[in-house]
Amino acid sequence: MLEKGxxxxxxxxxxxKDLVETNPTAAIFKGMLEKARxxxxxCIEDSFAYAKDKLYKSHSTPELEVGxxxxxxxxxFNNIKE
Length: 82
Prior knowledge:
Number of strands: 0
Radius of gyration: 29 Å
Number of helices: 1
Strand content: under 5%
């Protein structure tokens, strides 16, 4: 039967199907966990790549040779006994 007129949209009509469900069944729970794990791994890899790129842009390795004089700070050597 075809009804004409106003059909109200329910709140469940606005939910996307690829989102995590509120009450998952055991059959789809494993898939949800796997999806969350893959997303977390991708986020961690992106974060490491960003940090590595940022470090290499701002950090330069010093070119030292044997016999060069260097300044050593003694603030972190509190445990040395005289």
